[in-house]
Amino acid sequence: MGEGGQGPVTLRGQTLTREEVQHHTSKDDKWVVIDGHVYDITQWSQRHPGGSRVISHYAGQDATEAFKTFHVDLDYVKKFLKPIKVGPLRDSDQQSKQIDRDFDALRETAKKMGLFKPSYTFYVLMTAHVLILEVLAYVTLWCFGTGWIPYIVSLGLYATVQIQAGYMSHDSGHLSITRTTKWDHLLHHFYMGVLKGVPPKWWNHMHFQHHAKPNVMHKDPDVRVEQVFVFGDKMPIEVAKKKRSSMPFNYQHRYFFLIGPPLLFPVYFFVTTIRHVITRRLRLGSFWIVTFFVRFFYMYMPFFGFWGTVAHYFAFRCVESHWFTWVTQSNHIPMKIEKDEAKEWVPLQIHATCNIEKSAFNDWFTGHLNFQIEHHLFPTMPRHNYYKIQPLVKSLCEKHDVKYEVKPLLTAFRDIVKSLKHSGELWQDAYRAYHVE
User: Fold this and answer.
1) Rounded to an integer, what distance in angstroms lies between the CA atom of residue 156 and that of residue 81?
2) Is the pTM of this model over 0.85?
3) How many CB atoms lie within 10 A of CB 226?
4) Cα 234 vs. chain centroid, distance in angstroms?
5) What residues have CB less than 8 Å from 172, skipping those under 6 apart?
6) What is the Cα–Cα distance from 337 to 328, expressed in whole angstroms?
7) Residue 232's pLDDT is what?
């Protein structure tokens, strides 16, 4: 390896084969292909704004579509590629598949239709409704006291603030509110840091990995949970082979209700965000956490006292956690969960996602993530335009025989439990086969 991620001197500038690229997948030697050229990302991955893992997940593979999809200003980000270029890919290895060419054409059509242009009115109104709900959550207690009814109303309002602020931070994190990196980053700090008390870099680290390799075992953090759950058809068997003792996964469709939705935010996310800012020494992330808790305790300690405010914090996080878990996992857990097969962008995303039927309530309740397929294909597209691109996405799927799945909301929720039960049974059968004499 050359110094500073510059690539092997003997190969720099030479025409390379796809087989050669596939050998460079280790932690200390990572290459990717973008637009027919090979780049050594070994050192650059540590400085990558989206996090080191998201770009490293494509080591040894073609990252062209991911590169085009994640970045709103391609001319700007291409400036960073020149110093790490190894050489061109052999012409015969640059043949793109028809589905990739059709997707590129669809992206250009979406641009011509103006579907990547945000509606500032929409986002102003969404922000206003979040701030109004936060005021109402406080005023309800101030005017009506802390009896059970006003408390439950206030708790529901504040949990709604958190989930809707989460949707807004999701939009800004994907640079879809202003389509300007600087301003969307500032908004991301406002929604995620100020309103939620969560370090934005933690979100980047987790969420961009999910988008890069959705439902891919050992790469998508949303399915790297084999300590407590197994998903799909392949993970249960892999886990059963490796472990003689583990969780009773054949009951996971039951204990999911106890440790899944209730504890994701109050325990798992709480611990991982704290750990992330400490291990990575994120001063700004620490600042947002501290200022959120100072503001929260200043507002609610007069009503509940110290320990009551602590309980109130975990109570609204628990409500928010239920809402978030059922919405986000209904799109993914029942879908295919496999090892990385370096699939083309469209089948990679659509095989891992499904949609929920459109309605005014579903749009609001899910933050337009009921259009999960469109979001995964075009993560920087403003969410209010997903329904406009949907017919064209369906046509693309029909042409290439890729299943496009849409479900009613409650059916999508039920499918989470059915999928967990199915995976648990697969684990049980495999465990007995490998470990029970």
Assistant:
1) 48
2) yes
3) 20
4) 22
5) 184, 185, 187, 188, 190, 191, 192
6) 15
7) 95
The residue assigned the tokens 């996971």 is 252
Question: Residue 320's closest CA among 275, 370, 365?
Answer: 365
Name the CA dihedral angle for 352, 30, 27, 199, rounded to a multiple of 10 degrees: -60
Residue whose pair of structure tokens reads 């720099």 in the numeric block:
12
Residue 48: the pLDDT is 87
Residues 101, 108, 34, 95: what is their CA dihedral angle, to the nearest 10 degrees? 20
Crossing angle of helices 283-330 and 270-279, in 10° steps, is 140
Looking up tokens 């291990």 gives: 279
Given this model, what pLDDT does residue 9 score? 43
Q: Report how far residue 91's alpha carbon sits from residue 104's, in angstroms, rounded to the nearest whole number.
A: 19
The helix (run of H) or strand (run of E) holding residue 232 is: none
Please tell me the distance from the alpha carbon of residue 272 to that of residue 275, in angstroms, as a whole number. 5
Q: Residue 157 phi/psi, 5° resolution?
A: -65, -45
Q: Name the 3-class secondary structure at 263.
A: coil
What pLDDT sits at residue 310? 97
Task: Copy the structure tokens of residue 328.
Answer: 């986000």
The dihedral formed by the CA atoms of 356, 199, 171 and 82, expressed in degrees to the nearest 10 = -120
Gap between the Cα atoms of 82 and 157, Å rounded: 50
Tell me which residues of the chain have a pLDDT lower than 50.
1-10
Residues 307, 263, 246, 211, CA torsion sign: negative
Neighbour count for residue 297 (Cβ, 10 Å): 16
Using an 8 Å Cβ cutoff, are 126 and 160 in contact? no
**Closest to 81 measured CA to CA, from 14, 15, 35, 26:** 35
Task: Give me the count of residues in the chain.
Answer: 437
